[in-house]
Amino acid sequence: MSADAGRLIEVDRETFDPWRIQPVRHRLADHPLLQLSSLVELGKRLESRGRVRTHTSDVTPGTPFNNAPKLHPHRMSAANTLQQIEQARCWMSLLNVQTDDTYRTLVDHVLDDVKPVVDPVDPGMCYRGGWIFITSPNTVTPFHFDKEHNFILQVSGRKTLYVWDHRDTVAASEESRDRFHACHERDRLKWDESLRERATVFHLEPGQGAYMPSTSPHMVENGDNASITVSFTYYTRATRHDSLLHAAHERLRHWGMAPPAVGQNTLLDFLLHSGFRSAIHARELLRRSLGKRPNTDGAPYAIAS
User: Fold this and answer.
1) Same domain flag for 97 and 243
2) Which long-range contacts (CB under 8 A, 24 or more apart) does 243-247 make?
3) Cβ pair 128, 98 in contact under 8 A
4) Is the distance from CB of 148 to CB of 184 less than 8 angstroms?
5) Total domains, the chain
6) Which of 53, 106, 239, 299 is the most buried (most CB within 10 A)?
7) Do residue 47 and residue 125 come from a single domain?
8) Whether 176 and 275 share a structural domain
9) Pairing between strand 159-163 and 218-222?
10) Are 123 and 181 in contact (CB under 8 A)?
11) Whole domain around residue 58: which residue ranges?
12) DSSP 110-131
């Protein structure tokens, strides 16, 4: 990684592939905004806006990710949980930290730093986001995937990260990806213990991390102490193109058709992308004419509901 040894996130410019899982190193473990005292204050601010997600340590890798907070609710406030995280038996995510003025600066600082490495091979960085995970000992993040490209960085504590290739249809079927991109549901994604054998495994310590392409399934097992982990995420032209096609294929499935996998039929993908993108542009023009805020995956920052 010597090509970018002076950066906040060390990524080799010569070998970086936006669609390949890969290890990274970083210089954020001592950043003041990522220390527990700062996160307690951030947790208070975000909780008042409904941007804290939490569940107890009773979850397993196979717990449905979308429903984990309802299936295993954690009742303590964000501040109390963070102050007692070693004993709280809790997984907590501070969501969309880019909506906080102070932490948006951090998100921009990090992604601006890595953008010169990303842009030449994956242009169009947008929809920037930040997510901070504070986890009690021996707590699991259930098996799931996300839309964004993701630099996930370990700040304190230790955890084991399992990541599967975004093209692995054993770990995640094409149908599961279509549905996820269409309506953000993960109900077609199913955990099986045998999947561990197919994963790329990272044993993360402070200063270490990983890069995961869009819709790379992953699962995390925390170590024997509490940990803090941060993710810096974004879309690019390629992820937006891919997401739109998966959503279009899900619509075809709804109409009773069985489309080939995204990328297998160039002409079909071209026609679908052109048609659906035109419809999205029309929708956004209508929203603007009605005085509503645009709702587009091309926004500079991730839109928080």
Assistant:
1) no
2) 243/147, 243/181, 243/214, 243/297, 244/181, 244/272, 244/273, 244/276, 244/277, 244/280, 245/269, 245/272, 245/273, 246/177, 246/178, 246/180, 246/181, 246/182, 247/178, 247/181, 247/182, 247/276
3) yes
4) no
5) 2
6) 239
7) yes
8) no
9) antiparallel
10) no
11) 2-236
12) HHHHHHHHHTTTS---EEEEEE
Residue 300 forms part of a structural domain: no
End-to-end CA separation in angstroms for the chain:
37
Residues 32, 162, single domain; the answer is yes
Output the six-digit token pair for 261: 């996998």
Q: Within a domain: residue 302? A: no
Query: Which of left, alpha, beta for 247 (phi over 0: left; psi -120 to 50: alpha)?
Result: alpha
CA torsion, points 125, 131, 137, 138, in degrees to nearest 10?
-50
Which two tokens mark 112?
């601006």
Strand order in the sheet with 218-222: 140-144, 218-222, 159-163, 200-204
The number of residues in the chain equals 305
Q: For residue 205, give the nearest of 173, 158, 168, 249 by alpha carbon.
A: 158
Both 36 and 146 in one domain: the answer is yes
Q: What does the pLDDT profile of the chain (305 residues) look like in tens digits? A: 444 556 899 998 889 999 999 999 999 999 999 999 999 999 999 999 999 999 999 999 999 999 999 999 999 999 999 999 999 999 999 999 999 999 999 999 999 999 999 999 999 999 999 999 999 999 999 999 999 999 999 999 999 999 999 999 999 999 999 999 999 999 999 999 999 999 999 999 999 999 999 999 999 999 999 999 999 999 999 999 999 999 999 999 999 999 999 999 999 999 988 888 877 777 767 777 777 776 788 999 999 87
Q: Residue 106 contacts by C-beta under 8 Å, 6 or more apart in sequence?
A: 31, 33, 97, 130
Identify the CA nearest to 11 among candidates 37, 172, 19, 22.
Answer: 22
Same domain, 277 and 229: no
CA 202 – CA 132 distance, rounded (Å): 18
- Which residue carries 């979308």 as its tokens? 66
